[in-house]
Amino acid sequence: MTLRCLLWGNPSDPPVLFIHGAGMLAHVWSLIAPGLLPGWRLLAPDLRGHGASDWVTPPRYVIEDFVGDLLGLLDLLAPQPIVLVGHSMGGRIAAWLAAQHPQRVRGLVLVDTRLTALSQERVQLWRGVRTGRGTRRGHATRTAAMASFRITPEEPGIPAPVWEHLAHHAVAERTPGDWALRFDRAVLQIEGSRIADLTGLLPSIRCRTLIMRGADSDVLEATKGAAMAAALSDCRVQVFPGGHHFVLAHPERVAAALREFLLSL
Fold first, then answer.
1. How are beta strands 5-8 and 41-45 bridged, if at all?
2. DSSP 8-class letter at 49
3. For burial by CB atoms within 10 Å, which of 53, 195, 229, 233 has the most?
4. Range with the lowest mean pLDDT among 82-96, 155-169, 191-205, 242-256?
5. Own/partner long-range contacts of 145-149 (Cβ < 8 Å, ≥24 apart)
6. Domain boundaries, the chain
7. Domain 5-116+185-264, CATH 3.40.50.1820 — does that match?
8. How far apart are CA 2 and CA 65, in angstroms?
9. Hey, which residues does 43 pair with through a beta bridge?
10. Would the pTM of this model clear 0.85, i.e. be above it?
11. What span, in angstroms and rounded, lies between the C-alpha atoms of 40 and 8?
């Protein structure tokens, strides 16, 4: 299997691994990268089944699969201890990796990541939105395919150039005249990393941790964020304007906060 990974910065600088959420892609983090350079080596892969990385047949998209891929990537590109930054499902993957492989992680940033279990009603609603908007039917042009790109839950305040940037990278021509989103919808069929209760991982995470959450997020409410922070040995919570995808609406603020956290390490 081939993974596509975006890289920024000097290879000799301290490494930071960015992990996107379900249905997204590595280019989410290209909005953050300029605010962290120079000073760090930034790695942002497309997870399996996402973006330009391979899809897996038969489908294998549980949390252990994603973590195994990332460990292999780190063996190749950043074998030293690393800082992990994960959004949503990517944060669940990051928390798992930090808890199970503490010697490889020197810092952790959970971006609007909920570690408690999700209700079946919520999961089915999200999956219904995703699958209802994108059957296997493709589009005749890139423009039409880009217009079908959606973010769930919706996030007000995302600038039009940011939206167009993500949509551009989120589609590909499968065969001549057949444009579609670069996302294996089988990811939505597998429970793996999205609905299980992972709060039991928190006592095993020993590195310094920053929890970022959106003030209007209904994924990580204030009480859940505070409970997560209390269960961690060295953690603080920082709140940003916006909802679950506040990184896309306020990338400069997020980059500044990340730089402060990285310098604290």
1. antiparallel
2. T
3. 53
4. 191-205
5. 145/171, 145/179, 145/180, 145/181, 146/170, 146/171, 148/181, 149/181
6. 5-116+185-264
7. yes
8. 14
9. 7, 17
10. yes
11. 8
Question: Tokens 């310098």 belong to which residue?
Answer: 263
Name residues whose C-beta falls within 8 Å of residue 165's C-beta, 6 or more positions apart in sequence.
27, 30, 31
- Cα separation values, 36 from 14, 29, 101, 148, 224, Å: 11, 11, 25, 31, 29
Write the single-letter amino acid at 174: R
First to last CA, the chain: 34
What tokens appear for 112 in the block?
């609007």
pLDDT given for residue 192 in this prediction: 53
Provide the angle, in degrees to the nearest 10, between the axes of the packed helices 89-100 and 63-77.
Answer: 70
Q: Contact, 32 vs 20, CB < 8 A?
A: no
Question: Quick one: tokens of 174?
Answer: 């499968």
Q: Which amino acid is at 223?
A: T
